[in-house]
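Hello again,

I reread your note about wanting to compare the complex against the isolated chains. To keep things tidy I'm splitting this into two emails, and this first one only covers the full assembly. Below are the input lines as submitted, including protein chains and any nucleic acid or small-molecule components. They are followed by the predicted structure of everything together. The single-chain runs will come separately.
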Amino acid sequence: MTSLKRKRYSNALAISASILFVAFTGMQVASPRVTNPPVTSEFHGPQEVTSILKRACYDCHSNESNLRWYDKIAPFSYVVAADVEEARKRFNFSEWDSIPKDEQEGKLWYMVNMIDAGRMPLPAYTAAHPSAKVTPAELDVLKKYVTDLSKANHTAGDTARIQQKAGLQTSNAPAKAIPTSVNGIPYFDDYKNWKVISSTGRPDNGTTRLIYGNDIAVKALEENRINPWPNGATIVKVVWNSQHEDAAGNVMPGNFNNVQIMIKDDQKFKDTEGWGFARFNGLDLKPTGTTLSFATSCINCHQLASETGFVFDIPTKKHAVKH
Amino acid sequence: MTRNLVLFAFACLTMLGCNKSHNLSPAPETIFDEPGMHVVTSTFNQRTETISVLYGNDAALSHAGQARPEHVAGEEFKLVTWGLKPNPLWFGSDINGPLRSVETVKIVADAYGAARIDYGVENRNEETAKIAPTDSDERINFIFAQRASVFP
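Full-complex prediction:
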């Protein structure tokens, strides 16, 4: 290399370094800041539970984020700020009582299952913050906590008081409008002629369920084409409150609780992994959700079933867990 | 400091690959299918580790739905029982596993018009055959005692 060329080269290098430096400095100046709004209604639980949650979850899921110096350096600061914002939206331990009690219980089960699946705390986060890791023994503490909580919250149904559907309408009665979800999915009765693909019992929230699949869904299971499921596949889950266990240990369905529908249409429901969700509550089939965004919480939870095309309750062969 | 930064950067790259995987594949052979049979009700039992669905034909469903209190000839019930296992995708939920047995109860009218109750059990694996109940009266009573689940 001639001395002229060498000079040009070192000039280019200096200019590039300056640009990078300015860009880096600019990123630091423009970097988003994570602020801690006041704690309005803090989560309360047994000390052994709160200490795990504080250590593993509070940096993102509360208004007590304790960011380390390296969390504040761009480009990481951008990722951290976005993560904290999203985390607080999903649930915030500092504003815990702003959500209804039954939703709190559902969120706690969701958290435990996210930890159980290895999805939370985010692996990227625990790599940089190893103290946030949840050990298997700590996970057991959390599992026991939610199980006991649900046992206390759900009294089993009473056989003698099972609410029956109101009698058949007389021909003079005006036809009732078909209950329809905000996303346009109507309730329908056809599933009663479909095959039951699985049956589940959830001692966790005191319910008994049957899951039906239409012909497209059953064929997809038979052909192992569930990731993704074909368009038109429809799954219906009927949920009852469980009755008290009988002397032999049998748990029977009591009052009808709700019916949930999943319809696969990868164009219509692009934002929720191609699944349209609907839920109708009680015998009057009141639809869940007043805005389209209700389906976001459905798919957030169903992400745990990404391995089976986002459907939780399908029959599966004996499996070996691998990590 | 540098170590933490390197770890953080590494973690960012690998964060998508850390979820627990179960190797799940569908088990469509566990799906019960018999034309003309409708769901009557279902039950699960953590002690016996079983989960069952009771099916019935139109006549059986009318009885179990309490539209007709007395039994009549022509009623046919099928109690399908599977093993129970924890749902691999959700801690806290139990789901049916392999099919174990199908019990059938039929009310048949003989040539003289008298009704007879037939009971039969088909075991789907050797293990359950060993522990299958032999007292058919007890099983008939159990099946007849079921009330239809309330559907919307």
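For quick reference: The beta strands of chain A are 195-202, 207-213, 234-242, 250-251, 253-264, 275-281, 286-287.

B.
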